[in-house]
Amino acid sequence: MKTILIVIVGLFVFFGAIFWTVHEVPYFSNTFQTGYLITRSAFAGAILGFLTSTFFHSPGNDSIEKFQTSALFIFLFLMIAPAGMNWLNHHFASETRYERVRFLKESGVQTSRFGVLKGENLKNDLYYTEFLRNDLVERIRSTHPLFTGIKHGALIDIPVKKGLLGFDFVEIR
């Protein structure tokens, strides 16, 4: 019975993690130091997964069953941790402040899921804005152009929030 419960919970967490991660993609795209956020959250997820697996170990279990339970929870928490940490970061953020950055370029792309039919003229539905912030080239994504008519090298103000976990992100409405 306990094994069935673990499998059912595992399936819900697995598909929930996929759904949640897909939902968080726009926020990941507009978070600075995303790689560092993912690395930290994966480490925290592995530790949390191991600690959770020890809760499900019963005293009489053999080592193979303990390994399987530990591997399952570590894997599930590794999957869910990046989306969860990113959600915590942007959901409980500080007030918006404006940072002055150097504009580099803004480009639009067409993101048709099924390709373009011959003669079809699609409009851009995704825009990437690149700018220089703290001597690093950063890129954010939006569904509409943010800075039309701005020339390369001009100074612009972007709305930045500091997240609960200390990672800055651009809030686009």
Number of strands: 5
- Name the quaternary structure: single chain
Largest sheet: 5 strands, antiparallel
End-to-end separation: 47 Å
- Tally of contiguous helical segments: 3
Derived structural class: alpha+beta
Radius of gyration, whole Å: 21 Å
Helix percentage: 40-55%
Shape: elongated
Please sum up the structure shown:
The protein is an alpha+beta fold and about 170 residues long.
Structure description:
- The chain is an alpha+beta fold.
- Helix content is 46%, strand content 23%.
- The chain has a five-stranded antiparallel sheet with strand order 3-2-1-4-5.
- α2 (34-56) packs across α3.
- The longest helix is centred in the middle third of the chain and has 29 residues, at 63-91.
- The N and C termini lie far apart (47 Å).
- 19% of the residues are buried.
- The model has no long low-confidence stretch (mean pLDDT 85).
Architecture blueprint of SSEs:
Elements: H1 2-29, H2 34-56, H3 63-91, E1 97-109, E2 126-133, E3 136-142, E4 155-162, E5 168-170
Antiparallel strand pairs: 1-2, 1-4, 2-3, 4-5
Record keyword descriptors for this entry.
5 strands, 46% helix, 5-stranded antiparallel β-sheet, alpha+beta, 3 helices, 173 residues, single chain
